[in-house]
Design goal:
heterodimer, A: about 110 residues, mainly beta, 6-stranded mixed β-sheet, 4-stranded antiparallel β-sheet, about 45% strand, globular, B: about 110 residues, 5-stranded antiparallel β-sheet, about 0% helix
Chain lengths: ~110, ~110
């Protein structure tokens, strides 16, 4: 596709359940990033994948959060035992080689009830 | 204290006004500076970018970086109602690193 695709666009889940959020980056983009945007907050970095290198997980807020990227393309962010404070918009971005060429998806709006 | 500070606004201006948006930062190692525009329920889109200090102009938009003051600005001339959005500053230490974002400034341009 022409852009970064994220699914689902909206997700409502019960506290304690696990959720999986998907990101399809732009074809050929080797770098992929996950960010979280809470109400009234800027984007908070979560995790970064670059090619075949080990991911930079330094932004993950707890061990309930994990992410993988299969075949250097699609990525899945998993949140286990969701809490109400996990409610936010989760944004994915991909980048080729241009230092400024981050392209964002429209995000997944997660609501934990 | 966050590494990047940005006044969240909201900022309301009449159509045609000059808008000034600013961010300050604490990490002197930042070299790559960007401004993103985000419409409601959409992802951020890149608006302007600069490397290190200096000015850059693109149409109605001008980005300025003052590394000595750790201060960056975005100016919008002849503002339009379609400019109404949230503007996020972002910066990184090295090319391709994760971006550090400000909280964003909400801008409303009224006809």
């Amino acid at each position: 596709g022409a852009g970064v695709s994220q699914s689902p666009s909206n997700k409502v889940t019960e506290k304690g359940k696990d959720v999986e959020l998907r990101c399809d980056p732009i074809s050929g983009h080797t770098a992929l990033y996950w960010y979280r945007q809470s109400l009234g907050q800027g984007l908070e970095f979560l995790i970064y994948f670059q090619g075949n290198s080990a991911p930079d997980k330094s932004g993950l807020p707890s061990d309930r959060f994990s992410a993988e990227r299969t075949g250097g393309s699609v990525s899945t962010l998993t949140i286990q035992r969701t809490q109400q404070e996990d409610s936010a918009v989760y944004l994915c971005a991909s980048r080729r080689s241009d230092p400024y060429g981050y392209t964002f998806g429209s995000g997944t709006r997660l609501t934990v009830v | 204290q966050k590494e990047v500070e940005q006044d969240p606004g909201p900022l309301s201006v009449p159509e045609g006004a000059i808008v000034s948006l600013n961010c300050t930062y604490s990490n002197s190692a930042f070299q790559y500076f960007m401004w993103y525009r985000q419409y409601s329920r959409k992802g951020p889109e890149l608006l302007m970018y600069t490397y290190s200090s200096g000015n850059k102009e693109d149409g109605r938009f001008t980005a300025q970086v003052d590394k000595s003051s750790k201060y960056i600005s975005l100016f919008i001339r002849d503002s339009q109602p379609s400019d109404s959005a949230t503007y996020l500053c972002a910066m990184s230490v090295n090319s391709g690193y994760a971006l550090n974002f400000g909280k964003g400034t909400s801008l409303l341009v009224t006809p």
